[in-house]
Design a protein that fits this description.
Elements (H helix, E strand, L loop, with lengths): L29 H17 L8 H4 L12 E3 L5 E2 L13 E2 H17 L19 H15 L10 E3 L17 E2 L4 H18 L4 H19 L23 H15 L2 H13 L11 H10 L7 H24 L13 H18 L3 H14 L24 H6 L18 H7 L15 H4 L3 H14 L5
Helix pairs in contact: 1-16, 3-4, 3-5, 3-16, 5-6, 5-7, 6-7, 7-8, 7-9, 9-11, 10-11, 10-12, 11-12, 11-16, 12-16
The protein binds zinc ion.
The site of zinc ion has 7 residues, from loops.
Length: 472
């Protein structure tokens, strides 16, 4: 890694191994990027839970219906029917908070570049006249609707108490639990349901209205609820997705509901929340950036010019910083700390750059975003395309139970990438002493570098869809 110098890097794309062919080598053509959209989008379909995946659509990843048993509300004798939705990651848990980041990415991608999405993903709904990305998002939205309580609050997650062995989905048969309502889950839910409303209105008006009603109910619950952060109860070891601050989720919901309804009530709330503490991130825990995107690009001209002016100025300043870091980086990316899931962080930055380009056409931002995608697709110190099934070399052993059970890597999945803090034993044992950007290993045991997640694939899909249309 240290041998790579800035001089060796071309302004837009670079390859560590100059002889190796990258997926985008054909003059960085749009069709090459476009060709990745379908497999990356199909990953969501292959993660579907609660229904049988037929071999005609899922091939070697077909399976009978999984996780269909009613789930026990934790510490109670109440059972709920909450089947459906996507398995979150390498495990079979279904978590509302990261699911909403994934939905937000997909819906923003469709809004910004509808022509990038076909009706031909090879999923059961293909050919129905609706872009498959919206069919796929709807599958998750229908599950989310089941996770809402009558009073508007939204349950945080449904999982077993423990992670299963590396078994196929239908082989995880331990008892399912629904875990308590959190205000982060409720805020995120309210936001994505409001985002869904205008997009589905012309497709299925009744469904769109249901989404809007659910969004408003969740919002009213939030208005009267103190923060309810989620913590795993003792004895439960599945993903926590804990978040101590719900102000950004409330803000995202207010922005999305303002866009959906035009009501000043929501805009006043959004303004007040923005003044009290800004968040511009696009992570599952910090979703203020999605609220900003809704106000800037949601389709309804925002009536608060001062608020919009501040958000826009902040976005452009952030994009300038990210561009500068990208141009100075030996890897052509804007991060220099490789956290668990580093590939998501750098793609979130690429998304921020593309949103900034929407606010003010700037080739520098687009070039920086392209450089991030180049890194993901193989222009990185490990020389590996971090999307399974693509590039000269890609992960063969992702930490992903359906892949392990099938004995083959499911294609189209983005793995987490280098984790400089070596959070799992395999990484610790085999990667200590390596430079931070090379702390990645293609091992099924390495959940901190080689797992996958729907909310990582979603931001990749956003970046692919945008760059496929921006003359890459
Ligand atoms: Zn399942």
């Amino acid at each position: 890694m240290e041998s790579i110098t800035k001089q060796e890097i071309s302004p837009i794309f670079f390859s560590v191994d100059k002889n190796r062919r990258l997926p985008h080598d054909d003059a960085e053509s749009n069709p090459m990027i476009q060709s990745l959209i379908k497999p990356v989008g199909r990953m969501f379909f292959l993660q579907r839970c609660g229904i049988a995946l037929e071999s005609a659509h899922a091939g070697e990843f077909s399976h009978p219906a999984c996780h269909t048993a009613p789930a026990r509300v934790f510490h109670s004798d109440t059972f709920l029917h909450v089947s459906g939705g996507w398995h979150d990651a390498g495990d079979y848990g279904r978590y509302v908070v990261p699911a909403c980041k994934a939905i937000a990415d997909l819906l923003l991608a469709f809004r910004a570049a509808p022509e990038a999405f076909g009706d031909d993903w090879g999923i059961p709904e293909s050919g129905n006249g609706v872009a498959d990305v919206l069919d796929e998002a709807r599958f998750e939205l229908e599950w989310l609707l089941r996770m809402q309580r009558d009073d508007g609050g939204v349950y945080h997650k449904v999982t077993c108490a423990y992670f299963p062995d590396m078994v196929a989905p239908q082989q995880e048969r331990a008892e399912l639990f629904v875990f308590p309502v959190s205000t982060a889950a409720t805020g995120d839910f309210s936001a994505v349901m409001a985002m869904a409303y205008p997009l589905y209105e012309s497709i299925d008006r009744a469904f769109a209205k249901k989404c809007l009603r659910a969004s408003v109910n969740a919002y009213e619950f939030l208005k009267h609820a103190k923060p309810l952060p989620f913590h795993n109860p003792s004895g439960v070891v599945t993903g926590e997705y804990g978040d101590e601050s719900d102000a950004d989720e409330r803000y995202f919901a207010a922005c999305a509901l303002y866009q959906a309804t035009g009501q000043s009530y929501y805009l006043s709330d959004a303004s007040a929340l923005y003044r009290n503490g800004r968040s511009a991130d696009l992570g599952w825990a910090d979703v203020g950036g999605y609220g900003n995107a809704m106000l800037l690009f949601g389709g309804r001209a925002c009536e608060d010019d001062i608020l919009v002016g501040r958000i826009r100025a902040d976005l452009l300043a952030t994009a300038e910083r990210l561009s500068e870091r990208t141009e100075q980086s030996p890897y052509g990316i804007s991060i220099d700390e490789f956290l668990w899931g580093s590939n998501m962080y750098l793609l979130n930055n690429a998304m921020t750059l593309l949103l900034a380009n929407d606010a003010q056409d700037t080739e520098r931002y687009v070039a920086a975003a392209r450089a991030h995608l180049n890194y993901i697709l193989g222009g990185n110190p490990s020389g590996i395309c971090y999307v399974t099934g693509f590039g000269g070399r890609s992960p063969q052993h992702p930490h992903h139970r359906p892949s392990a059970a099938a004995g083959a890597a499911m294609p189209g999945m983005l793995v987490g990438g280098p984790d400089q803090y070596l959070h799992d034993l395999t990484a610790k044992t085999l990667l200590s002493g390596k430079p931070a950007a090379e702390r990645y290993i293609d091992s099924v045991e390495s959940y901190s570098t080689n797992e996958v997640a729907v909310y990582w694939n979603s931001v990749l899909l956003y970046v692919l869809a945008r760059l496929s249309r921006l003359g890459a």
